[in-house]
Amino acid sequence: MNMTNVLLPVFYLPPISWFSVLLNPENEIVFEQFENFPKQTYRNRANIYGANGKLSLIIPINHNGKRELKDIEISYREDWRSLHWKSIKTAYQSSPYFEFYEDKIKKIFDLKEKNLLDFNLKALEILQQILKTEKAHSLNTEYIKNPEELNFREKFSAKQPSEFEMDEYYQTFTDKLGFIKDLSILDLICNKGPESLTYIRNIKQSY
Description:
Layout (H helix, E strand, L loop, with lengths): L3 E5 L7 H7 L4 E5 L13 E6 L2 E6 L2 E2 L10 E2 L5 H13 L5 H11 L7 H16 L6 E2 L10 E2 L22 H4 L7 H8 L3 H6 L6
Parallel strand pairs: 1-2, 1-8, 2-7
Antiparallel strand pairs: 3-4, 5-6
Helix pairs in contact: 3-4, 3-6
């Protein structure tokens, strides 16, 4: 199998499309840790399906003058972990698989890492356990503007519709508000459960 080296940004509870890139068996994954932290991206936000439609959960950042992602610190001045957990619980408690995974998902919100990168990587470990995957990755060693790897740093927009093609599946509020594509992986896990991995592997890649 010819492996493709892929440079992937590190996200908070990443969207489903991100996982389709991560878990593609032909991709060798390198995570970006030296980029200047871009605002309003999935690096510190995740979209879930709330009772009124798409709901963004945002991790607050300490503005300490540091710019590189690896140095970005999380602010704990407000109890955002409780708020995020409460929002997730409210959104998904009536979904088919929430109770099954609840204890594992809750572990993410027991983490208290100083840096955003560390928090996201620890959360990713828990998400991989839930999905029963163990995809290896490495971290890059410097920022390269035009990397040799396939560059996914700008590929996922929290503001624009997803470019990835994916089949509709039943979501908790589908009857009320229709299907919302490419939400956080939590949406898929809570609604599709053990079928999540098969769903991810069937996503059409838009490279």
